[in-house]
């Protein structure tokens, strides 16, 4: 069963049942601190500063651009980073994403500074149309056929801010071989289901382009790392848990329910992660 089918019952049990505590509400105010890209980066940055954490070891280097507010946008910081990566001899690929977008919409993978600047200048004229420019994960872990994937993990946050990571999760897989020579091919770079379903080879490798955790664990063990260098339970899962906890600690003051309100709110989040070719989770 998908987690959503059990989320309300799980939240009620975890919070001690429903007697005398007000109704459960499957909505948490200000959840966009974690679900809108600009808000998430701002939230994580503030937490990293407070706690002395190196944010770029948890998420790729990211720069924020604010629609209608060019002065607040991080153009200079991004330019400095672009030059730094170029001087280091990096491939210097970046992924450019609207803050509030979903399903892979309007996302572009780019390596030309002028093209990135032109795209942003076209988009940033509208107040509220915010964007993130993020260093692209150029060396992702690849599945059979040399294909990209991301990991979708479900996380339940209960009314008393207990956090539960579902044991089951899924890899959303690409349909075609990964290559940095085809930056404009969304089938190569974006594994969103609504994109991949349009490819002629959708479902060729996995039904509905989905690989569940037990299949991924077996693939790591039998094909990708038969020497045991990267193992699912030992290496991947602890990183997932750690990143989830950092994000929810960062957003706690926004998400935690205020005392005295007449209901108990819970939220089922869908987290998306990438894994690089060394087994590091981002």
From TrEMBL:
GO terms for biological process: microtubule cytoskeleton organization. The keyword Coiled coil does not apply. Its cofactor is K(+); Mg(2+). Its EC number is 6.3.2.25. One of its GO terms (molecular function) is ATP binding. GO terms for cellular component: spindle microtubule. SUPFAM superfamilies: Glutathione synthetase ATP-binding domain-like. It comes from the Eukaryota. The keyword Transmembrane helix does not apply. Keywords: ATP-binding, Ligase, Magnesium, Nucleotide-binding, Potassium. It is an enzyme of class 6 (ligase). Belongs to the tubulin--tyrosine ligase family. Monomer. This is Tubulin--tyrosine ligase. It comes from Bicosoecida sp. CB-2014.
């Amino acid at each position: 069963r998908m987690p959503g089918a059990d989320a309300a019952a799980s939240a009620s049990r975890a919070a001690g049942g429903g007697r005398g505590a007000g109704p459960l509400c499957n909505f948490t105010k200000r959840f966009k601190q974690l679900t809108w890209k600009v808000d998430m980066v701002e939230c994580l940055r503030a937490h990293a500063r407070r706690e002395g954490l190196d944010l770029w070891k948890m998420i790729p280097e990211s720069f924020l651009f604010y629609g209608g507010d060019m002065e607040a946008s991080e153009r200079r910081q991004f330019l400095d980073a672009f030059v730094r990566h170029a001087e280091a001899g990096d491939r210097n690929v970046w992924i450019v994403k609207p803050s509030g977008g979903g399903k892979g919409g309007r996302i572009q993978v780019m390596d030309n500074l002028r093209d990135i600047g032109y795209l942003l200048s076209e988009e940033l004229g509208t107040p509220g149309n915010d964007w993130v420019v993020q260093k692209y994960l150029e060396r992702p872990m690849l599945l059979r056929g040399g294909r990209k994937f991301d990991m979708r993990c479900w996380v339940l946050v209960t009314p008393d801010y207990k956090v539960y990571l579902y044991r089951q999760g899924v890899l959303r897989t690409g349909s075609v071989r990964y290559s940095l020579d085809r930056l404009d091919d969304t089938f190569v770079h974006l594994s969103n289901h609504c994109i991949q379903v349009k490819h002629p080879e959708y479902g060729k490798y996995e039904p509905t382009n989905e690989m569940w955790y037990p299949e991924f664990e077996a693939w790591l063990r039998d094909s990708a790392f038969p020497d045991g260098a990267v193992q699912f339970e030992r290496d991947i899962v602890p990183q997932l848990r750690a990143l989830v906890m950092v994000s929810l600690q960062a957003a706690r003051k926004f998400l935690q329910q205020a005392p005295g309100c007449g209901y108990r709110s819970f939220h089922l989040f869908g987290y998306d992660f990438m894994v690089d070719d060394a087994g590091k989770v981002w």
